[in-house]
Structures are given as structure tokens and as C-alpha cells.
Specification:
alpha+beta, 7-stranded antiparallel beta sheet, 3-stranded antiparallel beta sheet, 47% helix, 16% strand, elongated
Length: 392
């Protein structure tokens, strides 16, 4: 089957490589609204090649990946995931997004016939099996930046753009996913201070909706005193209401859950001190999960190729050292070690609490509640001299 598909692909590439577009042809930028899955939240961008004379109506898009690829998740976490250019009929592409319930909009581009032909040839060349893969970067090399870069390569006239944005990368990201849901909490946890830099025009084009708005505000200077809009016409190919940002209901969203845990942790600490004992089961879970999250953040910060995840101040309070605290917490004969470790973790976590308001990084509101919970649960270990070793 794979050999048959490869043969068909090569045959199609050979056919399209010789195809000459006519004056009736047009090239459009396609922007698709978000879906419900995490990787659909930012929308999608594609290029449409349409020529009724040649019976060509194709979609090229740089967003194809395969979950079944060997070690897909580890590669994605590291930022070493290869995506590929996809190709399908416009009818199939539109139908798939209509079925998903996502709107699809088209911007027809003011390209000359030679420019349309050059862009079509470049897309066909990219679609060849030996050229199809590219190293994906979720901000700077993705489904939106690739079409934009290809447009710049074929437009040989100056471009004038009135689009500006003061939004940071974090503003744009959370504008797509919201704040009060668990996806937002996780993303806010792994994004570092770099995400709070202003994206500007160059950074914003990595997001499909920003690219769409930027092209709407772009003109081509065809002569010293003549400019024409880059987008000639706009069409709605699939008319669907925008998918609202899904915020987790209050009792289950991160802020509410950690507020309840914080109260439960405070009550548990009070009972522990009163009973001269420590509820190790709670601490092993809390410290262990925090330490595991710290391992992920440390890996992303120091080893990942992803952008925007470095210089992350969250590492002060959610770090791998909590794993050690989780291991020694239930041990009975390590009272002094636990006390010294708890003091060090309390100092580090306290600094992490202060940074929530005084460093150039935006944090999720639930962070403070988690930090307070960690500090509260360290109290029994700091007062371990007053706890019966038999119960410790």
C-alpha cells in the first residue's frame, strides 16, 4: 500500500510539475477557525490553488503530523518533531472543517500569473517525498509562517503593511486557549519570560488569525506612486459560529481546585500539629507531582528546542527537588534531614512566591494557591522536633 501511495504521489508531482496555470487561476490564503482539541485551538492556515481551465483546485497546508510516529511525544516535548506539507482537494478540505464545525475563510491574493506559477511550482516541489518534511516550531516555523514566507519569495515588489500589534506571545496564546482551564494552567506553567515579549508583526504571523489580519492590512507597491491591496477579495467558504473559549466550570477549574486543596492542606496541617504526627500520604502525592512537573519544566528550559520556554521563573517553586522531599517524607529516621530539606524548600518556594509579583513574567493566578499549599505542608517538617518519631 505504501509503495502504491508513493507511486501515485510521484505521478501527481510529475503531472503538476508540468502544469501551466492560466489567467483564470487564483491563489488564496485559507484560514480555518479553531476546533475543540488542544492542537486545534490556534486555527489553521493553508494555500489554495484554483484554475478552472486546468481543472485544478487543490489545498497545500503545512500541518500534517502522525501520532503513530516512533517516540512522537518525547520528540514533541524536545521540539524535534517533523511535520510535513499536506495536499488534498479543496472540496475534501472544506468538507472536513465543515464537519468539525469550524468556519473557513478565503483571501484571494493579488498575484500576477508569473508569481502564481512560481508559487505553485514551489509548492509542488515541496510536496515531493524527499522535500516534504520540515522541523516544526510552534511559533516560528509552522502552518502559518511557511505560506507567508513562500508569498514573500514570489512577490518582487515592496510591501507596505499597516498592521501592528502590542500583544505579547502569551497574550496571543491565551487569547486562543483562555485562562481558567487546565490547558491554560499547564501552558502558563511551561512558558518562560520570553513569552512576555511583544510579538510584533514578525512574531504574530506564526498565528493564523494574526497572519490573516496582517495580509488584510498589506499593500503591494506596483509603481512608485501606486499601491494595491494584497488581498483582492474575501470569501466565506464555511460559515460556522466561532467556537467559544472553553473555561472549566468554577468547581473544577485550576483556581477553584487549588483553593479547596489549600484549605484542605491547612486543615490537615493543623490536625497534624495537634496530633504530633504527619500525614505522609498527602505530602508524597503533593511533593511527588510537583517534582514531576519540575522535571518537565527543567527539561523544557534547558534542553528543549521549543521557543518561549526558557528563563522560566516557575522553576523556583516547581522544581525536581520536590521528588527528594517526597521520597524522604515517610521515612521515620530522617527527622533532621527532612527538617533541613524542608527549610531549603521553604526558602526556595518563598522566593518563588515573591517572584509572582516582581519579575517580568506573567503567571497563572492559581500559582499562588499551589505555592501556599506547599509552604503550609512544609510546616510539620520544620517543627519535626515537636512530633513523636513513632508517628513520623
Amino acid at each position: 500500500m505504501k509503495k502504491l501511495l508513493l507511486s501515485l504521489t510521484l505521478a501527481c508531482c510529475t503531472f503538476w510539475a508540468t502544469a501551466q496555470l492560466t489567467e483564470q487561476s487564483r491563489i488564496s490564503l485559507i484560514t480555518c477557525d479553531p476546533g475543540t482539541l488542544v492542537y486545534e485551538k490556534f486555527g489553521h492556515t493553508a494555500l489554495r490553488i484554483c484554475d478552472s481551465t486546468q481543472h485544478i483546485d487543490l489545498i497545500f497546508h503545512y500541518g500534517v503530523f502522525d501520532f503513530d510516529t516512533d517516540f512522537f511525544i518525547p520528540k514533541f516535548i524536545k521540539g524535534a518533531t517533523d511535520y510535513s506539507i499536506g495536499l488534498c482537494s479543496t472540496h475534501y478540505f472544506i468538507a472536513s472543517y465543515a464537519q468539525r464545525g469550524s468556519a473557513v475563510n478565503e483571501q484571494v491574493l493579488a498575484l500576477t500569473l508569473p508569481q502564481r506559477q512560481q508559487l505553485f511550482d514551489a509548492l509542488v516541489e515541496n510536496y515531493k517525498p524527499e522535500n516534504r518534511l520540515y522541523r516544526y516550531n510552534f511559533v516560528f516555523d509552522n502552518c502559518a509562517t511557511r505560506p507567508y514566507d513562500m508569498l514573500l519569495n514570489v512577490i518582487d515588489a515592496p510591501l507596505l503593511c499597516t498592521y501592528t500589534t502590542e500583544a505579547t506571545y502569551r497574550d496571543i496564546i491565551h487569547g486562543c486557549i483562555g485562562w481558567q482551564n487546565w490547558t491554560a494552567f499547564g501552558i502558563a506553567l511551561i512558558l518562560g519570560a520570553e513569552a512576555d515579549q511583544t510579538a510584533g508583526n514578525e512574531g504574530a504571523i506564526g498565528f493564523p488569525f494574526c497572519l490573516r489580519d496582517e495580509l488584510d492590512a498589506t499593500w503591494i507597491q506596483t509603481a512608485p506612486d501606486t499601491i494595491v491591496p494584497l488581498v483582492t477579495t474575501r470569501h466565506t467558504l464555511v460559515d460556522k459560529p466561532s467556537v467559544p473559549i472553553e473555561n472549566t466550570p468554577w468547581p473544577l477549574n485550576p483556581t477553584a481546585v487549588f483553593a479547596l486543596l489549600c484549605i484542605a492542606g491547612a486543615l490537615l496541617t493543623w490536625f497534624d500539629l495537634k496530633r504530633h504526627s504527619i500525614s505522609h500520604w498527602f505530602d508524597v502525592c503533593l511533593f511527588g507531582l510537583t517534582g514531576f512537573a519540575g522535571i518537565v519544566i527543567s527539561y523544557l528550559m534547558f534542553f528543549s528546542l521549543h521557543p518561549l520556554v526558557h528563563a522560566n521563573w516557575n522553576l523556583l517553586w516547581v522544581n525536581p527537588l520536590w521528588i527528594f522531599m517526597a521520597i524522604i517524607a515517610p521515612l521515620r529516621r530522617c527527622v533532621s534531614v527532612k527538617r533541613r530539606t524542608a527549610f531549603g524548600m521553604a526558602l526556595l518556594t518563598g522566593i518563588g512566591l515573591i517572584t509572582q509579583w516582581c519579575v517580568p513574567q506573567t503567571f497563572h493566578p492559581a500559582n499562588v494557591l499551589v505555592i501556599v499549599l506547599l509552604l503550609v505542608r512544609l510546616i510539620p517538617y520544620l517543627w519535626s522536633n515537636n512530633i513523636n518519631p513513632k508517628n513520623n
